[in-house]
Write a structure and sequence with these properties.
Length: 432
């Protein structure tokens, strides 16, 4: 009997050693700056509070954010950032692992891949040090476009993200991985690209061909406090028992409540049966339920800067203030027209026939296959024409670069055209 008990205990110990409880790791990224983009960092701060309350330790959470909101001159509540009209401060105790100019695509990839050497001397130096059994949660919030996620400076392409995920899989840096992506056209980062056999489950705020939407406009702060997809999943995690709610349950709920865009899911959908707590934290958390805000459509992400100016105009006090806002609107519209003229010139140079031009500009590509060409053109346009991380409106036309590649045009020829057309563009003259 004793020998049998010893054998059983040894077997249990062996199984425990081979199959340890997964550690939870999280990478939270807000890829924008400036007051009009308030909502992106507010979303990520709220995401941190969700994970922290549910027990993920700070040493396992990496947060990248520009950190220009709390003490911004336009902030009427200094030191405080909110993500709901009646919400508490979500900025409190948020780690400042990587801030300001450290929020870059390169740093994001190195943190994700666990490249400690590359991050030495930068910010906290923290990286995702996950192992083959661990669970990794990635939440990215910012502007996007066809095959693009933007950062304060620069951009991450679908090819670059896909390669990183494949490298993580090859290096056995996770057991299960979940991505929640808030960005315009964010579905294009995974649609027909993310395999179903990598133990990765991704949901996106929008389909491949549509904008995501800002929400909770605050007239006191003159900006939007959140994005519909983001606040919907976080308010769900705040109010539900995430030790019982599954990833699929949360996806269905968020898809239902985000009726401004079409929330999507990709990758290994069988992972939808796993409970949310295995990625967002397993500790029960008592969170006061915030009052429901009457639904308002909000604004397409690309139009937020202009929308804010129009709202300021509506509330203007006196003729001088009204004229000031009207001038700002005229200036922004003029810059947008200029950007459109540059894009149009590129299209006319690479496609002489009108029907060819129409094909390149009429709709978003159904499928991205020429990823190398796409990456080259995106980075060239951002470098020589308009920095996609700083020019929200430029992202609206980035799909044309993907169409050019999918149409079979030679990347090197198009690169020359981009450099020629944009040689006189002033990169400092931000369009937004």
């Amino acid at each position: 009997m004793r020998s049998t008990l010893v054998a059983v205990l040894a077997l249990v110990a062996l199984c425990s050693a081979d199959d340890p409880k997964p550690k939870l790791w999280a990478l939270l990224v807000a890829g924008s700056n400036e007051w009009y983009n308030y909502r992106h960092q507010a979303d990520v701060y709220h995401a941190y509070q969700v994970l922290h309350r549910h027990g993920i330790p700070d040493e396992n959470i990496v947060v990248m954010h520009y950190d220009d909101l709390a003490n911004n001159a336009q902030n009427p509540t200094k030191g405080i950032v909110i993500n709901h009209p009646d919400g508490d401060d979500v900025y409190k105790n948020v780690p400042k692992d990587y801030v300001k100019d450290q929020v870059t695509p390169e740093n994001f990839l190195n943190v994700l891949l666990g490249n400690e050497k590359a991050m030495q001397g930068k910010g906290s130096g923290k990286v995702i040090k996950s192992g083959p059994n661990d669970h990794v949660f990635i939440n990215f919030v910012d502007h996007g476009a066809t095959g693009i996620l933007a950062f304060p400076r620069g951009e991450l392409t679908v090819q670059e993200l896909s390669n990183a995920l494949k490298q993580l899989n090859k290096d056995k840096k996770y057991g299960k991985l979940v991505l929640y992506i808030e960005a315009c056209e964010s579905g294009s980062m995974f649609r027909n690209v993310l395999p179903e056999n990598m133990n990765i489950f991704a949901t996106t705020a929008s389909d491949y061909n549509e904008s995501s939407y800002a929400c909770y406009y605050d007239s006191k702060r003159n900006t939007y406090l959140g994005d519909w997809y983001s606040v919907n999943w976080m308010e769900d995690s705040d109010s539900k028992d995430i030790e019982k709610e599954t990833l699929q349950d949360q996806f269905v709920q968020v898809k239902k409540t985000t009726n401004t865009s079409h929330v999507q899911e990709y990758g290994d959908k069988k992972m939808g049966s796993i409970v949310v707590g295995e990625f967002q934290g397993e500790k029960p958390a008592m969170v006061p339920i915030l009052p429901k805000v009457p639904y308002k459509r909000g604004s397409p992400s690309w139009e937020v800067p202009l929308d804010i100016l129009y709202k300021k105009l509506e509330l203007a006090k006196g003729e001088d203030e009204k004229q000031m806002h009207l001038q700002s609107i005229d200036d922004m519209l003029a810059k947008r027209n200029y950007l459109e003229s540059i894009v149009g010139k590129i299209v006319r140079r690479v496609a002489i026939a009108p029907e060819h031009q129409e094909r390149l500009t009429s709709s978003r590509p159904q499928k991205l296959t020429q990823l190398d060409c796409h990456t080259k053109l995106v980075h060239a346009f951002s470098r020589y024409c308009f920095d996609l991380g700083q020019n929200t409106y430029a992202l609206k036309y980035a799909y044309i670069l993907a169409n050019i590649c999918e149409d079979g045009l030679e990347a090197e020829d198009v690169l020359k055209t981009i450099r020629q057309v944009c040689k006189d563009v002033n990169q400092r003259d931000i369009v937004i």
